[in-house]
């Protein structure tokens, strides 16, 4: 790695394979923004791209996966800024957790949280799958926890059959909310059941 700052990134890569290696990178120092990503061969090992490079314009957020294809031998990856975007930390962040969701007696109940910095409209969906009828709830606005007190809204989905046991709960159904992190927007009902069983085992051990 030759440069890893808030606006630019540069690294020399090497693949011992003979073909194309399909991989990915994550950038932890780059500020939220639009960037030009350049990737090309370094045939003479001087740390510079030789000949034509593959170029992509994309939005980069801290820690998100960016796919790259690396040819055999040496290559150079460069990232240069095009446009600064709003800092991600000032956004809302809707979240689901299997720790406070219950699936029992044909009912799924729990909470949608906002752990971000702005209020957000919260929608929740049970994603339809084969044999499982989907449902949707519009829960209203969840304020931001700017006073360090949790902000959440309760939900309850009724008539959820066992055919939905492999189903998925999702918040921000239409992807309308700009969020700090979207990896906490989904929870599988299978995972909910696993957590419920583990909690029951712990409670039994404590009796």
Report on this model:
- This protein is mostly beta strands and 207 residues long.
- It folds into 2 domains: 3-84, Immunoglobulin-like; 89-206, Immunoglobulins (Immunoglobulin-like, Sandwich), CATH 2.60.40.10.
- The chain contains 1 helix and 15 strands.
- The strands form 4 sheets. The protein has a 5-stranded antiparallel β-sheet with strand order 1-2-7-4-5, with no helix packed on it. Strands 8, 9, 10 and 13 form a 4-stranded antiparallel β-sheet that branches.
- β11 (120-127) and β12 (135-142) form a beta hairpin.
- The radius of gyration is 22 Å and the shape is elongated.
Gist of the model:
The protein has 207 residues and is mainly β. Helix content is 9%, strand content 44%.
